Amino acid sequence: MLTDLHAAHAWIELPASQRDHEVSQKTQAIAREAAWRLIEHGARDITISRWEDSRDISSHEATTPEDRYFVGIALKTTRAKLSRDRQIIFDGTMPAGTLYVSTPSKPLGAQFHAPCAFLHFHIAANHFPAELPAIEALNDLVLLRDPLAAELAKALTEHGDAADREFAHCIGQTLAMHLTRIEPPRAKVNALPKWRLRRVEQYIADHFDRCVSLSELANVAGLSRMHFAAQFRAATGYRPREYLLNHRIEHAKTLLATTERPLAEIALAVGFSTQAHFSTVFKRISGESPARWRLASKAARPDVETLPRRRASADRDWMIGATA
């Protein structure tokens, strides 16, 4: 089942620090997975684990234990295909904050077509009373844009391994309560067929740096504006305009992290008419200004930033030594 809540766009990142290495596996609030969803539950009713895979393509399979619910929250945007017994549950882009649920004893296959990072919650079934009407809706639930889930993940990951188990347990309980209160969609809209979606996504990728109208995208999909907008949102969780803006911001992040181009120049390069508009949209989607994001990105990659300088310094030292 696919539904949609309001947005949580920003990347959710897990901080790394010296303390990460000082916390033993036995006391960690966030367990390390040896393989996708593979951990030791022990006696805890809520176990939280982390899965990251830097490969461009990866495939995994797992079955939810009979006494557990499995909940995954994407920590960064990826492209995924979820399936069970050859039935496709989801196939498309998962923004950061996407939440998906597997009920007890259910097998699930996952294919990721981009690097991925997830926070996984393994929650005892007694947190989900069978008599609640919303429980049936949890089967194969995919929430592409769940702001509360994104905030809970962010609150936990900001502490990294320094988070204590009491705090992590409270986060897990809050998530379980949230899931039991989700109302299934009243009216089902058919998702945009995959072949139409790929055409639209490719068109946006090729033309995001200029003005792209809803009518233009609807023509690419071969549908009326109204039907296209509804089906596109059902397939991606985004309104077409929001998807376009997010694509522009993701491209802008690449330019911010890999170049020294001025913000005004980057704004124009990704399709914004002014730097002010670019900065406003960037902060709304990413949670911070382009300048602050660029500084944080460089701080997270010191080796990448300093390598050219080290090489230049080494070349100068060699030349001085050679001429001495």
Description:
- The chain is α+β, with helices and mostly antiparallel strands and 324 residues long.
- The protein folds into two domains: 2-180, Jelly Rolls (Sandwich); 194-300, Orthogonal Bundle (Arc Repressor Mutant, subunit A), CATH 1.10.10.60.
- Helices cover 41% and strands 19% of the residues.
- The chain has ten helices and eleven strands.
- The chain has helices spanning 147-157, 165-180, 194-207, 214-221, 225-236, 240-258, 263-269, 275-286, 290-300, 302-323; strands at 2-3, 30-32, 46-53, 58-63, 68-74, 78-84, 87-94, 99-102, 107-112, 116-124, 142-143.
- The strands form two sheets. A seven-stranded mixed beta sheet has the order 1-11-8-5-10-3-2, covered by helices on one side.
- The longest helix is centred in the C-terminal third of the chain and has 22 residues, at 302-323.
| Strand-pairing-aware structural class | alpha+beta
Q: Provide the spatial order of strands within the biggest beta sheet.
A: 1-11-8-5-10-3-2
**Treating each run of at least 4 consecutive H or I residues as one helix, how many helices?**
10
Query: How would you state the average pLDDT, rounded?
Result: 81
Number of β-strand runs: 11
Helical percentage: 40-55%
Give the biggest beta sheet. 7 strands, mixed
Per CATH, what is the topology of the largest domain?
Jelly Rolls
Q: What is the radius of gyration?
A: 22 Å
- Give the CATH class of the largest domain: Mainly Beta
Q: Report the span from N to C terminus.
A: 73 Å
Q: What's the SSE pattern? A: EEEEEEEEEEEHHHHHHHHHH
How many structural domains does the protein architecture include? 2
**How would the global form be characterised?**
globular
Strand content: 15-25%
Low-pLDDT windows of residues? 2-26, 304-308, 310-324
Second rung of CATH, namely the architecture of the largest domain: Sandwich
- What is the CATH homologous superfamily assignment of the largest domain? Jelly Rolls
